[in-house]
Write a structure and sequence with these properties.
Bound molecules: adenosine-5'-diphosphate, magnesium ion
Radius of gyration: 24 Å
Number of strands: 19
Strand content: 15-25%
Oligomer: single chain
Helix content: 25-40%
Number of helices: 20
Length: 551
């Protein structure tokens, strides 16, 4: 009778469960798994650092609805892979990290790269387990995939000891569960839907907050219909951007602080009142604000502020319910409400504040001036990756998103160095769409070596580096003694474009913003990976924030 190795069983089980993409670095003991997954048609992307591989796996999960897999070697490989695991946990993205492990028969003997991997992965995981028999691999894979996408999505970890990977099982003794179904779309009790709409009807200054839970649940059609039917102003979270077009007239993105501060009824959809929304606390929020909260996770209801109407279940299903219930109501939020004009006034006042920076053509460029050319150059259907401190913050306001799941950024965990992983994920999942990454010079440094990966896989991605020569703020020139530089300082005008060229891509170095547009166009016209390195003025700042002390 035919025998199957643990590696072959793992590959088939992953394929059966709809895992299509794996990122990783091979070595002892996991190389056979990578070889086997290629045989069953899973695309394997060899990376240069396990961090990137694990970041990519999480982003694949968010983009596709099925977890991406990351494959890492034992010990240090797993430790590096924890980066993406924790990021996936915090952002509620599905992924499966598969860690090689030292052989079971050497447990506690001081084996090569022996580590308590299930233990260290557990705090980041919905499910973490060691596989103890080759024939049980499909059971664990189905469990990990299902757990990663059901309920609040998240990360799972499977520990694969060397002797399980190389071990064998009789083919007949292995049961492969069928592909686990898409996550069930739970609805809310009809009376809660009515309560939510009643509360909205009573509001003077209502606001809908759209988070990435709505993007994940593919609720874009329902949310857009809801906004247009009710005429309610909405605010998108950073990755909730694009669920409804950022340029929609009801978007309050340009008057965010005012909208949060004054709203008296908020519908929180697939977003948490965590640090990104200032915990829902005064003075960022109105002290009498009343909350309708839609979330798949009952445990997150009332986090930081009491929720008045809890809509627990799937975003797409529940907004669909609300739309249906609205068919029996005449009500919509009046177009002439003073709340609309207050938001509009604040938006144009905010726009004026940055206008001088946008128009400032002096060299080297400031952030806003750079985005003046970058934003219109980005194709409508591009996946936009954004990381860096100021680069990401300013980019969030200057690069609009038209579609859901179009933006990947540092997200809930605020991690730096994940951009190249997201670039790989986006290029793998959407080979037919433009991939644009706008990164700070510090951020690109964390995983810049993945430029070799994008060149090796001939991914035609376009990377912009907004290079101010530092973490956060930069410096005009470094002191002769580098030990006298501030800890935040990096090399001034470092040539990241040459790194891209070194691996076969195309690089452009822009020192005067008058040359930026031509460089961007040439990068886009180039049929391969390209990097546009834009030198920024070291003091390029952003507009003063009203609540700097609170962010
Ligand atoms: P953002 O960063 O955009 O504010 P968060 O990551 O804070 O978003 O919140 C996303 C929320 O979406 C989480 O609380 C998560 O439980 C929720 N969520 C995940 N899947 C769904 C779903 N299918 N329907 C509704 N909410 C969901
Ligand atoms: Mg910088």
């Amino acid at each position: 009778m035919a025998k199957l190795t643990g590696a072959a069983i793992m590959a088939r089980a992953l394929k059966d469960q709809g895992v299509e993409y794996m990122f990783g670095i091979v070595g002892v003991p996991v190389e056979p798994i990578a070889n086997e997954v290629q045989k069953v048609g899973i695309k394997f992307y060899g990376c240069r650092n396990e961090q990137t591989a694990s970041y990519a796996a999480g982003a694949v999960g968010y983009l596709t609805g099925r977890p991406g897999a990351a494959l890492v070697v034992s010990g240090p490989g797993v430790v590096h892979g924890l980066a993406g695991l924790s990021n996936a946990k915090e952002n509620c993205w599905p992924m499966v990290l598969i860690g090689g492990a030292s052989p079971v028969k050497q447990n506690a003997m001081g084996a090569f790269q022996e580590e308590r991997q299930v233990l260290i992965a557990t705090p980041f995981c919905k499910f973490a387990h060691a596989v103890e028999l080759p024939e049980r691999i499909p059971f664990y894979v189905e469990m990990a995939v299902r757990t990663s996408i059901y309920g609040r999505p998240g990360a799972c970890y499977l520990d694969m000891p060397d002797d399980i990977i190389l071990g064998e099982a009789e083919e007949d003794a292995v049961q492969f569960p069928t592909r686990c179904a898409e996550p069930p779309r739970m609805t809310a009790p009809e009376e809660y839907i009515q309560q939510a709409l009643n509360l909205l009807e009573s509001a003077q200054r209502p606001l809908v907050i759209v988070g990435k839970g709505m993007a994940w649940s593919r609720a874009e059609d329902e949310v857009r219909a809801f906004i247009e039917r009710t005429q309610l102003p909405f605010l998108a979270s950073p990755m909730g951007k694009g669920v409804v077009d950022d340029n929609h007239p009801l978007s309050v993105g340009a008057a965010r602080s005012l909208a949060l501060q004054e709203a008296d009824v908020i519908v929180l959809m697939g977003a948490r009142l965590n640090w990104m929304l200032h915990f829902g606390s005064v003075p960022r929020f109105n002290k009498n604000v009343r909350i309708v909260q839609l979330d798949i996770s009952p445990e997150s209801i009332s986090q930081n502020l009491p929720t008045e109407v809890a809509l627990v279940g799937d975003g797409k299903a529940i907004v669909g319910q609300m739309n249906k219930a609205l068919e029996d109501r005449q009500w919509f939020y009046p177009k002439e409400a003073p709340w609309h004009s207050a938001i509009a006034e604040k938006s144009s006042a905010n726009a004026k504040q940055v206008q001088t920076m946008i128009e400032d053509d002096s060299a080297p460029s400031n952030y806003f001036r750079a985005f003046r050319d970058i934003s219109p150059w980005i194709p409508d259907d591009a996946i936009i990756i954004s990381e860096g401190a100021k680069t990401m913050d300013i980019g969030r306001t200057q690069m609009p998103n038209k579609y859901a799941r179009q933006r990947l950024d540092a997200g809930t965990y605020g991690a730096m160095g994940l951009g190249m992983g997201f670039v790989l994920a986006a290029a793998a999942v959407h080979p037919d769409r433009p991939i644009v990454s706008v990164s700070g010079d510090s951020a690109i440094g964390f995983s810049g070596m993945e430029m070799e990966t994008v060149c090796r896989f001939k991914m035609p991605v376009k990377i912009i580096v907004l290079n101010n020569g530092g973490i956060g703020s930069g410096v005009a020139a470094l002191p002769d003694n580098p030990l006298e530089a501030l800890p935040a300082h990096l090399t001034v005008a470092a040539r990241y474009d040459k790194m891209m060229e070194a691996f076969g891509g195309k690089g452009f170095f822009v020192t005067d913003p008058k040359d930026l547009k031509a460089a961007l166009d040439a990068a886009m016209a180039f049929d391969g990976p390209a990097l546009v390195n834009v030198q920024l003025h070291h003091a390029a700042g952003k507009k003063p924030q009203q609540f700097n002390w609170y962010t």
